[in-house]
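Consider the following assembly input.
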Amino acid sequence: MIGHRLANLAILGLAAAICYGMQTSKPHYADLTGPIPVRGGMGDDVKARLFQLRVDKVEFAKILAVSEFGKDRTLTTGGLWAIVTVELAATNSTTTISEATWQGPTGLGYRETERLAMVSGLPPFTVEPGLPARGRFVFEVPPSEISGATLLVSNERAFALDSQARITLDGLRLKPDGTPEMVADIYDMDEPIQ
Amino acid sequence: MSAGAAVSTGAAEIGQSERRWRRRSLWALLILLPATLALGSYTPVKWLFAAKDLFPRDVEPGSTVRFGGSDWKLEAMLTTKDTGSVKLPENAVPVFVDFSVTIGDPDLQKLWTGCRITLADAAGRSWLPTSLPILRYSDDWSDCNSATFSGAAAGATLKIREAFVVPKDAIPTIEPTLGLGSERPYYLRFLRAKD
């Protein structure tokens, strides 16, 4: 009788241990439904589910010059402006690409700036299949978050079970201390995208 | 018969009926588990079907089809060389798709919501109407979504025009499609006349 009870207790303990093990080892729901990464480097055509993206160049500047509603304006920053020029194309159907994040080497994410309201060539980009288009993402980043950064691009900010382009910014020209070699004093946003 | 024997017989009977019910319950699981799954997924699947153009209904060239309570006819697919101030990429072609629609049931806000007109080519690519202002404003033509809120009466005929920008290589095979909220998951695919 006592052996029977002990066996029951052992089974219960084993079940608890298995449940605990599964709880701690299995991925969280948010990870299971989170972004599906598609990786690449600068100059690669990175193919997400609905769009294709290539990072052509990354430029840095201390000041952005824009003209909004016919008025010239300059925007300064405590860090640096990073201007990422990309080529975009839709895979199979017209799609909108609206979300980009500059992820620094420490894992900090910098979302595209919202300080530019009426400048053309900024997201959201609507792209059509067979008609690649060029665009720019503009970020404000601290100089220490440039070396080893990754660009994350997706259709929307919040999504589940969809792909996210993750481009390692491996083609940046940097000084030994990790800050960019070339920093323009002023970057004119009205210049056509090249 | 002793009292002890009577008790033990009763216990055996209870044990048997318990076993019977246990077996019935296990069999019931076979039905109940799939039924739970079906009930739980019914609403999401219904939403999916109501949101997507999944099954095409082919429309012969030149014919009129009742869809969303009204009679739809594809009048023309045109292109233009004059895109005004809009400069298109080199391999891009503007395409206008014209429908004439005779209103049957005038409750368009219920029947036509989510109106979606696309161009689809043989390679499986599809294009939504362009946001480029290549379509000049006109009193005669409206796009599908503004037609939905036009308050048109039964019997009226609306002219609906959508503008697209597609790559040149798609032109030989593109066909217009039409999806309406009240008809999903079915949509119309307007076949092109065979040359």
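Helices of chain B lie at 3-51, 108-111, 144-148. Ask yourself how this observation constrains the way the partners meet.
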